[in-house]
Amino acid sequence: MSDITIELHNVSKRYWLRRGWYVFSIKDEVGRLTSRLLRREVQPREEFWALRDITFSLKRGEVLGLVGPNGAGKSTLLKILSRVTVPTSGSFVVHGRLGALIEIGAGFHPELTGRENIALNGVILGMSRREIESKFDRIVAFAELERFIDTPIKHYSSGMQMRLGFSVAAHTDPDVLLIDEILAVGDASFQVKCANKIAELKEQHKTIILCSHSMSNITDHAKSVLWVDGGRVRMLGETDAVLDAYLEHVTAAMNTAEDTRGEEAGSGAGPASIHQVQTLDGDERPQARFDRGDRVLIDITYSATQALPGAVFGVSVEDIQGHPLGGVVTDPDSIKIPAPVERGVLRLTLDPILFNRGAYTLSVVISDPKVKRSYGLKRRAARIAVDGPRAADRESSGHVYYPHQWESLR
Q1: Of the candidates 179, 228, 224, 250, the residue with the CA atom closest to the CA atom of residue 51
Q2: Parallel, antiparallel, or unpaired for β 224-229 and 207-211?
């Protein structure tokens, strides 16, 4: 018997666009036919290919990471594999029982209780009634919903629905599990439970496709990565190689977007303006790519139309999705704006830079924390990419590396 569990050959998916909406309904087609019969103008439809010629295969026990920008076609691909929708052309096969968590609350009926939805969702995912009954207590305990299991789903928060959905999908004993962004939602303790469950499924040699914008989730679980862009396969291969190429592409795209957008609207509307933020290496040469541990210089060019005695400069760091990772501010007693400034340059030195491998953006603000007033702001003013040890060799998790030393005391 072949070890192949998922195989796609030239899978494509087309939608018809009109007036900005996806349309492919009987009502729409009747309306178009009526317009033709009455000789009225029929608004032309526009093709939109969400996927184009996707070809790949996965063997039993493989974990594939799925990355790409919003709108790249990742969710469409998962919906085709889970048979929520059908491809326009091409073919695919999935061998074995499939569990899918591709949308929070998918397959749940809002008027039914959690207990009833477990039964309904379990049947949809291919479980027998006896199997559902035998696993019911474990599903509820994993989702931590004992108190609310007889409450209608419509009264659940999105987090509660997500926990229940993941629990049902993970306990179907699937041969193939599709996960779309679920590990990025929920509190820390539930994320740990999800990660442990995935590790358990990996030990059982289940095939998993994990779609996530979190690079750490991908590196922690996936042996290979499929990068989808514009509905096409941009790259497929070993995790580190694909993520390196993807992060470099994202950083370059951010640079291009910032260049075309120009200075942020409103950054010069107040009494202070941030004109340029430039990153340099230790030899004061312009550079946007560094190794973890490098010396990084950040030069901020600004102007002020008046004295701002209480102003401080702040530099904050965000990850590739714009999530804040912290920042630093100046000491108002040592860095001051005592008079109008036509052109000033302030330098921030990070020595060493302690970010793990990834792409990051820098935002800069001039504000007065005492009166809670912002004088000048430039979001995503600079972009940097940080290289470092390969994901499999990392000594730390997350975005920040903490210099450390371990020792045994007994």
Answers
A1: 228
A2: unpaired
What's the angle, vertex CA 221, arms to CA 380 and CA 86, rounded to 5? 85
DSSP label of 20: T
pLDDT at 185 over 80: no
Strand 224-229 versus strand 232-238 pairing type: antiparallel
Instruction: Label the pairing between strands 176-180 and 98-101.
Output: parallel
What's the order of all strands across the beta sheet hosting 358-368?
289-291, 373-387, 358-368, 312-318, 324-329
CATH T-level assignment (fold) for domain 267-393: Coagulation Factor XIII; Chain A, domain 1 (2.70.50)
User: In CATH terms, is domain 4-250 a member of 3.30.43.10?
Assistant: no
The domain spans of the chain are 4-250, 267-393
Q: What pLDDT was estimated at residue 270?
A: 75
The whole-angstrom separation of Cα 118 and Cα 112 is 10
Whole-prediction pTM value? Answer: 0.70
Opening angle at CA 80, ends 82 and 51, nearest 5: 155
